[in-house]
């Protein structure tokens, strides 16, 4: 046992031990409240030593010497003399018995609720007991520690791939990862735009303007999703979900290729170096300038299931699953039916195939979250519904910009298509409310939509 406890270095090591403990992760899977522990009979220069642990569903997201603000805000504050804490750490005193006999004083929070987490408390004590003397050597007890344990954007210590569990190659994320390696390897620089240049020069001004309008929406959208996926990768990494991390690495790479592809078309075929943000109307800005960066960026500070739901709904269900799918439908209506711009068609078909995997992952992520906590459904449904209006508004903005829309495009066709995509995603997620996490995996494994090739079609 360390000679000094409740120091900054000691609490950082405690958090690291907690995050490395599978037994603690399972025992504390439903615990989601920060706790301040107080060494009651120690009166250092700044008062009693106290430490703050942000405990969330079997992990410790932050650990530090507690400030008075931490102590005032914490849902749970537990205090005891040093002798009692050392009895706990040596195993001479059980934490539940210490609570019931009031050797541990609960100054904030419910004793009754704490008794329901006796197994988690024992694993917490066991983790603290594993800290060696060198790790607990005295420090000034102030400030953060360089070996700060995982929190937003920080990965838990240890490595899954060197543990007995290894990688689950049958999981949906790993199947998507393997699929990305098999059919996701394409180079935007290899697409032949020779005939596209000829076709572009034969289009009239209005046809070129409408194609530029749609492509500008995709160009900015692809740049946006390439930038905004990073906080989700950090959140998943912090939960040690290695199979999902591996798939998300391909996800980011593919979004980068999509960004490159559209810019290459604009440079080499359209030859347009103007400011294409002129096509970004109010509804487009709500989704891509506001909702998407806010929902994704929030994960850097708040990687909770609620925040992950908002992020994935915005990114995977609305931007990819509703808007991008409707955009592919528009490209098909303009190009495939008229045998125009084969290079652009080829690239959009490859892009759609990639995006089908991205949507599949979003369905998986949201289904996993819902199966774990069905109480997330009302918030998910509200957020999807709140984004439907600006999503449909983007379609209105494109059609409203032109007195006559070329290529025979009709707004009702695209509104109906977008609504069908939206309703399909919502219905698919609603099924997960009644399933266990294992049932979600089985349900997704047999879903042909999640394995579709994603060809450009009507």
From TrEMBL:
InterPro entries: Ferritin-like_SF, R2LOX, RNR-like, RNR_small_fam, SCP2_sterol-bd_dom_sf. Signal peptide: none annotated. Keywords: Iron, Manganese, Metal-binding, Oxidoreductase. Its cofactor is Fe cation; Mn(2+). It comes from the Bacteria. Pfam families: Ribonuc_red_sm. The keyword Transport does not apply. Gene3D superfamilies: Ribonucleotide Reductase, subunit A (1.10.620.20), SCP2 sterol-binding domain (3.30.1050.10). Residues 136-164 are annotated as: Disordered. One of its GO terms (biological process) is deoxyribonucleotide biosynthetic process. The keyword Manganese applies. One of its GO terms (molecular function) is oxidoreductase activity. Belongs to the ribonucleoside diphosphate reductase small chain family. R2-like ligand binding oxidase subfamily. This is R2-like ligand binding oxidase. It comes from Candidatus Kutchimonas denitrificans.
């Amino acid at each position: 046992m360390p000679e000094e406890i409740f120091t900054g270095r000691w609490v950082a090591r405690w958090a690291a031990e907690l995050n490395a403990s599978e037994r603690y992760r399972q025992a504390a899977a439903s615990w989601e409240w920060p706790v301040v522990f107080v060494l009651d009979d120690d009166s250092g220069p700044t008062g009693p030593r106290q430490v703050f642990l942000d405990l969330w569903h079997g992990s410790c997201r932050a650990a530090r010497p507690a400030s008075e603000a931490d102590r005032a805000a914490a849902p749970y504050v537990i205090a005891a003399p040093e002798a009692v804490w050392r009895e706990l750490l040596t195993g001479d005193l059980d934490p539940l018995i210490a609570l019931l006999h009031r050797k541990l004083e609960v100054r904030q929070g419910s004793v009754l609720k704490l008794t329901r987490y006796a197994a988690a408390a024992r694993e917490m004590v066991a983790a603290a007991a594993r800290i060696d003397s060198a790790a607990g050597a005295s420090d000034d007890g102030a400030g953060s520690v360089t070996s700060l344990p995982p929190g937003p954007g920080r990965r838990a210590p240890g490595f899954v791939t060197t543990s007995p569990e290894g990688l689950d190659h049958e999981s949906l994320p790993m199947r998507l990862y393997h699929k990305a390696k098999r059919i996701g390897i394409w180079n935007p620089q290899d697409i032949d735009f020779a005939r596209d240049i000829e076709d572009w020069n034969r289009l009239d001004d209005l046809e070129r303007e409408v194609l530029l309008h749609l492509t500008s929406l995709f160009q900015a959208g692809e740049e946006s999703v390439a930038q905004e996926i990073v906080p989700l990768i950090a959140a998943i990494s912090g939960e040690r979900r290695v199979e999902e991390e591996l798939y998300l690495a391909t996800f980011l790479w593919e979004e980068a290729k999509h960004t490159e592809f559209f810019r290459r078309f604009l440079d080499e075929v359209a030859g347009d170096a103007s400011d294409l943000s002129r096509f970004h109307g109010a509804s487009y800005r709500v989704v891509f300038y506001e909702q998407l960066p806010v929902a994704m960026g929030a994960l850097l500070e708040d990687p909770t299931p609620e925040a992950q739901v908002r992020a994935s709904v915005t990114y995977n269900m609305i931007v990819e699953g509703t808007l991008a799918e409707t955009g592919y439908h528009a490209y098909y209506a303009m190009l495939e039916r008229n045998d125009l711009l084969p290079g652009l068609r080829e690239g959009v078909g490859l892009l759609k195939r990639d995006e089908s995997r991205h949507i599949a992952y979003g369905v998986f992520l949201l289904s996993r979250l819902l199966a774990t906590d069905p109480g997330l459904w009302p918030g998910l449904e509200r957020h999807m519904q709140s984004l439907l209006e600006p999503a449909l508004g983007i379609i209105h903005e494109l059609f409203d910009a032109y007195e006559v829309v070329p290529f025979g495009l009709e707004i009702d066709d695209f509104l109906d298509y977008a609504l069908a995509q939206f309703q399909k995603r919502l219905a698919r997620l609603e099924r997960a409310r009644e399933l266990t996490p294992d049932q979600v995996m089985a349900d997704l494994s047999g879903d042909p939509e999640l394995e579709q090739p994603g060809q450009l079609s009507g």
